């Protein structure tokens, strides 16, 4: 497993050197900073699992540093070192989210025990995956259970849910964490070239093969190979992949020699592989070889409590290294937090990045968001006879009944025009089309195209 990284912060050089010696001697990756300000620059440029800071320092105090760290990344664990008589401040630190505090003078054994206890609480997942939802907590716990296994894992989820992030977290928590992680998108490479990309080729194996080339299986030897969009793999290449997984050896294109490899394979898909096996489009034996262990990532719309935390994370991510302090006004935040995100986390990040580039005076408004997130038509508050289109449902009426009723009203108002109804409801054409099918609402309209709505 990769070494845990610790940032030591103290304005006394002697104390920094002592702590660095003790912690480095236990195998930790230690960085030192002489002030809270310097510590924040380190934190903004790289990730740390734990920060060990003195409480009283010139300039930014340890308590102020704790606040800054908490605002920047809640997953960083903080331990404070306090002088005798500073217990009240230490208690304040615990209230602010510090893991623990140690009183000076401390002995090295007590220090190491506290650090070890803190890091046992920490996982690489906590530092990489931004989430607060119970749905993602279940995913994290499952990943931790299976990370140290060498078995193949199939990661399922819609596009944009973060399947590669899960794979990287699993690698980092594994016994192969210090070895290489290689990723390939099986859908992004021509099937004629993908075999060479995975298994390599010998000189002259095909036109353009002017020299020998190692494939990703060889490059990732002793590490992890992530095969994204595995459902797009050609059926003939599936057989070769199956043999590599079973025999733990590969043969380069045009080669005659078997090359042993020790690679853990993680695969991901947004498709129903089991259904594909029934349709003879995916090998059943490969499916079960890949699906020894599986992880299902819920779409963002099913873990909406993660959206506010992700918004803040992406704002910080895309302003890191600049002095911009981005604010999001109430209307824009409401749109961001209530959008349905068919593109999942990737779509949210793209929207935030776009808004940061377009916003004026470092303030994001609804005008800075992608058009699909902003209702394009004015929704009438009342019909000609005075009945409101949107009103609170009677007690006991389900959300689905309300949704169906609103859709039917919108379709009636637009004479069955899906495009106009979608704009009226603030939905995309495809989303409304899906809901019409879901509720079995008859589409009495003549449109055959989306009229540019997407």
Short description:
This protein is an alpha/beta fold and 454 residues long.
Structure report:
This protein is an alpha/beta fold and 454 residues long. The chain has four domains: 5-122, Response regulator (Rossmann fold, 3-Layer(aba) Sandwich); 134-296, P-loop containing nucleotide triphosphate hydrolases (Rossmann fold, 3-Layer(aba) Sandwich), CATH 3.40.50.300; 309-373, Helicase, Ruva Protein, domain 3, CATH 1.10.8; 378-454, Homeodomain-like (Arc Repressor Mutant, subunit A, Orthogonal Bundle), CATH 1.10.10. The chain contains 19 helices and 14 strands. The chain has helices spanning 13-24, 36-45, 62-72, 87-95, 108-121, 124-128, 134-146, 163-173, 191-199, 216-219, 235-247, 273-278, 284-290, 307-317, 330-338, 344-358, 399-413, 418-425, 429-439; strands spanning 5-9, 29-33, 50-54, 77-82, 100-103, 153-156, 181-185, 224-228, 249-250, 259-260, 264-269, 293-296, 327-328, 363-364. Strands 2-1-3-4-5 form a five-stranded parallel beta sheet, with helices on both faces. Strands 7-8-11-6-12 form a five-stranded parallel beta sheet. It has a two-stranded antiparallel sheet with strand order 9-10. A hairpin with an 8-residue loop joins strand 9 (249-250) and strand 10. Helix 14 (307-317) packs across helix 16 and helix 18 crosses helix 19 (429-439). It is flat and about 70 Å long. Residues 123-127, 377-392 and 445-454 have low confidence and may be disordered.
């Amino acid at each position: 497993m990769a070494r845990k990284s610790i940032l030591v912060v103290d304005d006394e050089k002697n104390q920094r050197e002592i702590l660095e010696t003790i912690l480095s001697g236990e195998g930790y990756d230690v960085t030192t900073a002489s002030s809270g300000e310097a510590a924040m620059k380190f934190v903004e440029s790289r990730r740390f699992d734990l920060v060990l800071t003195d409480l009283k320092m010139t300039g930014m105090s340890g308590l102020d540093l704790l606040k800054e760290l908490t605002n920047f990344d809640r997953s960083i664990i903080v331990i404070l070192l306090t002088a005798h008589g500073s217990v009240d401040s230490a208690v304040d630190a615990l209230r602010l989210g510090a893991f623990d505090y140690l009183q000076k003078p401390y002995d090295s054994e007590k220090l190491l025990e506290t650090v070890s206890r803190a890091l046992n609480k920490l996982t690489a997942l906590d530092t990489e995956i931004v989430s607060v939802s119970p749905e993602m907590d279940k995913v994290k716990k499952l990943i931790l259970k299976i990370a140290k296994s060498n078995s193949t894992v199939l990661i399922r989820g819609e596009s944009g849910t973060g399947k590669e992030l899960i794979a990287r977290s699993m690698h980092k928590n594994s016994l192969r964490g210090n070895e290489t992680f290689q990723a390939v998108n099986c859908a992004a490479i021509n099937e004629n070239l993908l075999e060479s990309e995975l298994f390599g080729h010998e000189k002259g194996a095909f036109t353009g093969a002017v020299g020998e080339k190692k494939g990703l299986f060889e490059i990732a030897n002793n590490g992890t190979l992530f095969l994204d969009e595995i459902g797009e793999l050609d059926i003939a290449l599936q057989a070769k992949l199956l043999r590599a997984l079973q025999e733990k050896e590969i043969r380069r294109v045009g080669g005659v020699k078997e090359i042993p490899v020790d690679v853990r394979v993680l695969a991901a898909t947004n498709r129903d592989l089991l259904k594909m096996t029934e349709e003879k489009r995916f090998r059943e034996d490969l499916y079960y070889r890949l699906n020894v262990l599986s992880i299902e990532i819920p779409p963002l719309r099913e873990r909406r409590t993660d959206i506010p935390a992700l918004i803040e994370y992406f704002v910080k991510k895309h302003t890191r290294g600049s002095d911009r302090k981005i604010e999001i006004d109430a209307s824009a935040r409401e749109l961001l937090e209530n959008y349905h995100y068919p593109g999942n986390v990737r779509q949210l990040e793209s929207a935030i990045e776009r808004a940061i580039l377009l916003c004026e005076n470092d303030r994001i408004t609804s005008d800075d968001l992608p058009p699909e997130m902003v209702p394009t038509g004015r929704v009438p508050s009342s019909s000609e006879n005075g009945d409101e289109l949107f009103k609170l449902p009677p007690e006991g009426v389900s959300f689905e009944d309300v949704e169906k009723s609103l859709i039917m009203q919108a379709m009636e108002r637009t004479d069955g025009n899906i495009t106009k109804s979608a704009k009226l409801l603030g939905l995309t054409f495809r989303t409304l089309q899906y809901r019409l099918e879901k509720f079995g609402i008859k589409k009495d309209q003549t449109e055959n195209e989306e009229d540019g709505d997407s």
